[in-house]
Amino acid sequence: MSLFLIIALPFLGALLPGLMIQAGRQSCFIVTFLVTASAAIGLATHAPSVLAGNVVTARLDWLPQLGLNVNLFLDPLGLMFAGLILGIGLLIIIYARFYLSRDDDMGEFYSYLLLFQGAMVGIVLSDNVLMLLVFWELTSLSSFLLIGYWKHLPEGRQGARMALTVTGLGGLAMIGGMLLLGQIVGSYDLTVILENRDLIQASPLYVPALILILLGCFTKSAQFPFHFWLPHAMAAPTPVSAYLHSATMVKAGLFLMARMWPVLSGTDLWVITVSSVGLITMVLGALIAIFKDDLKALLAFSTVSHLGLITFLLGTGTAFGAMAAVFHIVNHATFKAALFMTAGIVDHAVHTRDIKRLGGLRRLMPISFAIATIAALSMAGIPLLNGFLSKEMMLDLALDTSLFGSPYLVAVVATLGALLSAAYSFRFIAHTFLGKERSDYPAEPHDPGVGLWIAPALLIIPVVVIGVAPFLVEPFIKTVTQAVIGTAAELPEEHIKVWHGWVPAFGMSMIAVFGGLLVLALFGPLARLWNATPRPEAKTMFDSLIRGSVSASRRLAEGLHNNSFSRYAAFFVVTVVAIGAHAWFTGANAAATRQILPITPVGFAGWLLTILATAFLVALHRNRLAVLILMGIIGVMVSVGFNYFSAPDLALTQISVEVVTIVLLLLALNFMPNSTPKESSVLRRARDIVLSVAGGVAAAGLIYSVMMSDFPLQSIAEYHLANSYKGGGGTNVVNVILVDFRGFDTFGEIIVLGIAALVIYALTEALLSGPVRARLLNRGYEEARAGDAHPLMMVVLTRVLMPVVLMVGVYIFLRGHNEPGGGFIAGLIVAIAVVMQYMASGFTWADNRQRYPYHGIIGAGVLCAGLTGIGAWFAGVPFLTSAFGYFRIPPMEEFELATAMGFDLGVFLAVVGAVMLSLESFSRLGRRAGIEDSDYAMDIDPSRDETAIGTEN
């Protein structure tokens, strides 16, 4: 099975539980199980090849220019983690089937579980760090959904937010570190990075890259000081806790440290940082776990402790440490998942996880007792169980590790961590299952059906088998270890054995076991001492930090974003001018290489008229109608300027846009006062004048510099001029650019234009259905109005011009590929013709004669343009690539047809529909109470009046 399919199966399968739950819980469970089983079988088909020393790869170049390739590889390390993810995932799916109540949405739960599963498999199989980062963030998002699955519980929502915040921020740091690694090596492919140990460690970017990557790993794997999020994630359902915190999410950080071990380990910074953090986490997590009364909280902090143990092993930078870490990852996944499930069974049966309300369950729940005892003894490091073997390897390594100049510090701390680990393991057994039976259990204790205990029971098998016969897994562990260390170290020669003789590590282990029993015996006074001792609470500190950050952010946002556009514009102008001035005065400004064109009287007059109109606009800016007229003048002069500088396409577009814009703005002004009030102080106006002048001078300087100097890069204009006809079949380069070279941009623009019109329509609907409607209907006129809103001359003129303008629009549309014109300009021209009918005869009269809804016209335009682009695929060329040819239909002359015409037709329809839908929205807002539009084309019609008089007579 393809590696792509192995990753894709959980993501695709996530769609099924939500559908299959309609057929029943059993159907939902079966389809989820089959999806994961299929991915596991696909992974298993590659196992023989991978274990034989081969690496399975799959490559897909997506955006090679950015280094983003969808590359996957499966080596022994990836095989081990993917096997744990999918294998334990199958057991969790079985367990959840019988754990979730009928009130829980099983389809939703399984969908979230499969999304998370796919993201985790994606992490361990990725051969591109950028793609790995995508999957990394997906685990944070999907785990957020899983942890907060019980949305009705406040602690569930808070735990999900805390996990997302901590791991998300760590993920941001890791993104920076991975980008630095790619910068050092010159590639973002993981296999390439892993081959450049010396280059990376010799780089000055090694230290920041290492720190950023470790931040990502420590937050994901709950290492000190980021350990606090994991226990609060225990508010999730027990299947989530068992899955995320035994074999998946919290192991992602460990996986990445193991994956990057060949290139990042071995330096003093790595050893000191990773080993110290691991040891602190191991001891601190174990100490807190002892005094937790909630079964899942105890197991959560024990998970933190064991993650610290594995981090320490990887941090030593030795091959033996890497082998011990690999071994304990496997061991911890088996006994910890079994323990979490057992805690869920106790909660499910007794209706409480509070150890103070438990005890004496040994005879009442014998199957659960047996499973929990074996798993907890393995966690404590008791011989003949798998936890003992990896714990003794850890203690043996601690004896040979020196930190901060002390040869005994690590050994003492490691022994203390093992002792505390044994203590909370013994407490889990003794205070839950041993002792006298109680009469005040919240519910009658009983062993559940096989559906709940079969999954943890299956996990106990490797706990015992590996503990008794470790030689069965030693070849696999060493194969994975070789994948971890690569060529950076030699594979350890030590063997994994039950008995190594009377070695110091065994003595340290016995100290830990008997010390743990002593702590259990003295638990009462120790618990009272613990409760009486003041200590910082991580959750309180986190909540305070979040509240402070939110408060500071709110003050900053409210200070900057006070809904004052002038303030926003001022900040923007000052920033742009300052940056531009810095570039201007510190950069190398080349001398002018071009001559100024001669100034003609016509050009000077146009420039002067534009300047005067702009100056009057500023002076009269409080009179809205005057401003609108002056804007029209400026727009016309810009159009003339375009035409003067040989840009007729731009001139036609500008003048068409000006007409439509002025008409729509006139309609909008109908709802506003004639003038604006004075709101700015003299000081603010002075500030605005200074900023405006500075911005104008900066823009003028930039334009002068660009126009008077040769551009340092080759212009793309030559390419367009050379390929416009032979590539797009048109001699009008501007139109060919719009419909072919940059057709995708145009396609996006007409979609945005249509969306804008629909938003205007939606806002109109909202206004007319709310309290504003009455104010709009009952508003009065500021000035007297003429008696004929639809005068005869206007009606006659627009009727006469309508066919002429439509013919001009068709002409402009057809000639656009080779002469100035095109669908956009033609659409504006036709829209103007239709707008004039609405203005002449009123909305009601014109709308009654409108056969096609404007929403449909917009949709037809977008659909027409899209289908034209899709048609290019059938010719084996990229989306929106034009095709053209020449045809002769007697008696006509030979003419050209291009597929770009279909795209241009879509542009035409979208423009017409958007303009008319906006007009329709304004017209509906313009209605007043007691005044209805006439059904007649004009208000005063002599022929109609004569007919009415004749009828009366």
Which key terms come to mind for this protein?
71% helix, 953 residues, two-stranded antiparallel sheet, two-stranded antiparallel ribbon, elongated, mainly alpha
Describe this structure as you would to a colleague:
The protein has 953 residues and is an all-alpha fold. The chain is built from 40 helices and 6 strands. Strands 1-4 form a two-stranded antiparallel sheet. A two-stranded antiparallel sheet has the order 2-3. The chain has a two-stranded antiparallel ribbon with strand order 5-6. Helix content is 71%, strand content 2%.
Radius of gyration computed on alpha carbons: 38 Å
Largest sheet: 2 strands, antiparallel
Shape type: elongated
How many beta-strand runs?
6
Estimated helix fraction: over 70%
Strand arrangement, major sheet = 1-4
**What would you call the structural class?**
mainly alpha
Helix count, DSSP H or I runs of 4 or more residues: 40
Low-confidence stretches: none
* Straight-line distance between termini: 94 Å
Beta-strand portion reads under 5%
